[in-house]
């Protein structure tokens, strides 16, 4: 279960790579001043710094990360997605073609992927976590693959969206999505900055609820877009001083942090709010004593794409209901 949670959280990392149609451009001594010419030739730099040649037309796409699948759907390209990872299909099957192949992001069937003949493949960096390139045969076949590493900031997410828009030829739609994100962020940040320091609430964001089998709490530390979101709202992340981006806290440590609010994105624990409210030894924690425990949409907050803004708004209303209201 722990691996499943972490795979969903870090599903932001994407990989694309080399050869015909989207091959890695050779190192010919070009400098940053050649960027305009490179783009004119169809060659751009992906989010990991690799030079790739973008196909003139993208009519078929394989997406191996749910965060990117969501972006592609919102760009109006669901019909062009000819295959995806199992997480993407689990979250967005109602918006995808029902008969498309699904692949395990850790052990994809390379032969089947090659046979699909997609113009572009977006793959998750989780696939590389074991240190092995599980797409080696795909790359050698000449299929277009590109790399988008895991987003640590909201700006990263916006740049990822713009990059995807460039690759698939939907720059204007991507720009519109990013502009809407910016407008909402600025609106919320203006309110967050008006909250006096002494009134700021402390928040524990949890990805995984402790249990007898696994008595730890996975949370978001500094260097994550979730920590940034809490700061924008005007709240204090109790795990902001942790050295790891996604630390595992003991229950004792979390209790000692005494958060005013607990936000959970745990999608595996049934009736998670009541489970948290009833945890042994937590009675004196402010969030428990005041019933300030709220569940967030796992897809919205865990997948680094434009829908983190929906999570941002929900977090703001949960933490400061007297200051934020986003009624439609």
Description:
The N terminus is likely disordered. The protein has about 325 residues and is an alpha/beta fold. It has 14 helices and 14 strands. The chain folds into two domains: about 170 residues, Rossmann fold (3-Layer(aba) Sandwich); about 130 residues, Nitrogenase molybdenum iron protein domain (Rossmann fold), CATH 3.40.50.1980. The two termini are about 35 Å apart. Helix 6 links the parallel strand 7 and strand 8. Helix 3 crosses helix 4 and helix 7 packs antiparallel against helix 8. About 40% of the residues lie in helices and about 15% in strands.
Q: Secondary-structure map with pairings?
A:
Blueprint lengths: L1 H8 L4 E2 L19 H6 L2 E3 L5 E3 L7 E4 L1 H9 L6 E5 H7 L9 E2 L6 H7 L3 E5 L11 H6 L3 E2 L7 H15 L2 H23 L8 E7 L7 E4 L5 H9 L2 E2 L10 E3 H7 L3 E4 L7 H6 L8 H4 L3 E3 L2 H5 L5 H12 L9
